[in-house]
Amino acid sequence: MSRLIVISNRVQAPTAAGVGGAQGGLAVALTAALREEHGIWFGWSGETGEDHELRFETFEGVTSAVMDLSEQDVEEYYDGFANRTLWPLFHYRLDLTEFERDFQGGYERVNRVFGQAIGPHIEPDDVVWVHDYHMIPLGWVLRQQGVNNRMGFFLHIPWPPTRLLVALPQHRRLVESLFAYDVVGFQTEEWLESFRHYVVTEMGGVLSDGDCVTVGGRTIRAIACPIGVDAESFIAAANGPVAKATQLRMLESAVGRSMMVGVDRLDYSKGLAERFSGYERFLQNHPDRRALVYLLQIAPPSRTAVQSYRDIRDNLDAMSGRINGAYADIDWVPIRYVNQGYPRDVLAGIYRAARIGLVTPLRDGMNLVAKEFVAAQDPHDPGVLILSRFAGAAAQMPQAVLCNPYSAEDVADAIDKALRMSREERIARWKPMFDNVRNEDVLWWRRRFLDTLTEAPLCERNAI
Ligand code: GDG
């Protein structure tokens, strides 16, 4: 019987210690598959230590295996190459991208350490699924270990245009390592297109039918496979008692005012400063309607070891303070800016109480908040989703009010349009988005990727 092996930087499987207890959609989808197929989820423990030993634990029928990394590993691989080189570069932020040889060395070293530790635990019939930019070379390391299994890779973030990617020293080495996999998945056709462009123009690759991409005699299938949310459980949460109580609390805290909500990790890719500027422009353009609306921005801090993340926090603290100082009245503040996370069912209630969901990333692989917002709405009186055209989710949700997040005027106009929208139009726009969120949910995504990997004929098995 074949097992599923999942490998990602952080393991989100449930453990006795509760790590992974705040189960997001990805964790729900993958732990269900791991439970059914008696698989193992491998990754970093999130802790530092010197021994690189895998620690196995089986909890609620799911086995996870985690390893500590040394402080140097974390600095070079995680805070360094993953979050200061690949993340900004893949989100089109060449200005924030740091190129350090030590980062690349640490990234390759940690991938080797993972591959060497995990390789011996892979059995001949296992199907291996590697996730995200932290682990791009892992498949190649596993092949070197003699792992000849079906192996897939999914990239959760955008794939950058060739002209940006070539700024990365050793870009070709990184992309070549993807050819160790059998299937490589991207969130959207746009990212897939960028990948294919790179392969053709930089590597002399050849595209053929059935998503096949060939370079130097090695062929992989490259597909677009958009991730979804755990829609049914989010809909249930939005109709549950905690969400209802939260909804009431929100409504009572601002009677007669429409709430706009944003929920994002504090990350420059999410376009928070641009969102505040767009909202400020709306307040300037419509003084008579100022007090009828407010923005609740939930932004839990992330990657605080990286300077650019500390900078964005300082910038947003200053912007929210300035905007509130300039426009607030004795009984109203324009922005409620909150730097903490909330449980999922509370979030669902907040989404449901909102008249507008503001999802305006400058660049985003997909963006699950947009889908969760849609899932949480009241079918008879849904809120309006304002969505950046640069989020992967925009390809599946053309009925949202699409905006250009770089333009304060455009964001201000989108807010104005959403606030004026009739109930009929809100329902007409929401319904097809809701159907999409429900049909193409996280289980659909998992099945689509794994079916491609396990059932469809592979273009050619890759062996090193
Ligand atoms: C990467 C890609 C892609 C946020 N605050 C709270 C909270 N969240 C949850 C949201 C959502 C998730 O975190 C964030 O997902 P996103 O998709 O918005 O963004 P990234 O973290 O950047 O994820 C992205 C994703 O991978 C999946 O492939 O869509 O493009 O960048 O689920 O709800 N959850 C709770 N409290 C919070 O305060 N419970």
TrEMBL record:
It holds the Pfam family Glyco_transf_20. GO terms for biological process: trehalose biosynthetic process. GO terms for molecular function: alpha,alpha-trehalose-phosphate synthase (UDP-forming) activity. InterPro entries: Glyco_trans_20 (IPR001830). Belongs to the glycosyltransferase 20 family. PANTHER family: BCDNA.GH08860, TREHALOSE-6-PHOSPHATE SYNTHASE. This is Trehalose-6-phosphate synthase. The lineage of its organism: Bacteria, Pseudomonadati, Pseudomonadota, Alphaproteobacteria, Sphingomonadales.
